[in-house]
Design brief:
Number of strands: 9
Shape: globular
Distance between the termini: 27 Å
Order of helices and strands: EEEEEHEHEHEEH
Strand order of the largest sheet: 7-6-5-8-9
Number of helices: 4
């Protein structure tokens, strides 16, 4: 389990992130149109998994905006923004912000993605939500970069994530 903080207060996640060089675990998440998608649906594309507790917080919204701005400059790369928010909230946020270069995916119904990737917060008022994480995968689903942001309120290291592509 990883130790992170929320406002300086220590909390833990349910496990460890996938290791760099390992095969990313398969997942099944819900798209904005309520259909299912899986990791294998993105085979052949590089992926940035921008994972966060909720689209309705300032830092999470900033990360979506930042990756949206960078996404159209990236060759053969898709940015997946993953949270436990309802697909309706994700769609509302991106629609009101005019964000069209990211793909929102929800883990609201089971939380299996967060558990399988070792990033679910296991205690605190946010228990059950995803911690702030960025994982970069190559075209074959191999982990090239993994960052567990140590303080939930902090932004990820965008430059390091993008440099790993």
């Amino acid at each position: 389990m990883a130790s992170i903080t929320l406002g300086g207060n220590p909390i833990n996640t349910n496990g460890e992130l996938p290791k760099v060089g390992s095969q990313s675990p398969e997942f099944q998440l819900i798209k904005n149109d309520l259909s299912l998608t899986s990791l294998s649906d993105f085979a052949g594309s590089k992926l940035i998994l921008n994972i966060f507790p909720s689209i309705d917080t300032g830092t999470c919204a900033t990360s979506v905006r930042k990756f949206n701005a960078d996404a159209n400059k990236l060759e053969n790369t898709k940015v997946l923004c993953i949270s436990r928010d309802l697909p309706f909230a994700q769609k509302r946020f991106c629609g009101s912000e005019g964000l069209e270069n990211v793909i929102n995916l929800s883990d609201f119904n089971t939380g299996k993605f967060g558990k399988d990737y070792g990033l679910e917060m296991s205690e605190s008022v946010l228990a059950g939500l995803h911690s702030r994480v960025v994982i970069v995968l190559d075209e074959n689903g191999v982990v090239k970069y993994a960052e567990q942001v140590s303080e939930i309120a902090d932004e990820p290291n965008y430059e390091a994530a993008l440099a790993s592509l």
